[in-house]
Amino acid sequence: MTIKDTLHKYQQRVDAYLDGTLLSDSIEPRLQEAMRYALFNGGKRVRPILVYMVNQMLDGKLEDADAAAGAIECVHSYSLVHDDLPAMDDDDLRRGKPTCHIAFDEATAILAGDALQCAGFELLTLDTTQPGRNLAMVKVLAKASGDSGMVVGQAFDLSHVGKALTLEQLEAMHKHKTGALLNAAVDLGALSSGCTDVETFTQLRRYGDAIGLAFQVKDDILDIEGDTETIGKPQGSDVEQNKPTYPALLGMSGAKDKLSQLHSEAISALQPFGDAAQPLVELADFIVYRDH
Question: Percentage of residues in the chain with pLDDT exceeding 70?
Answer without folding.
Answer: 94
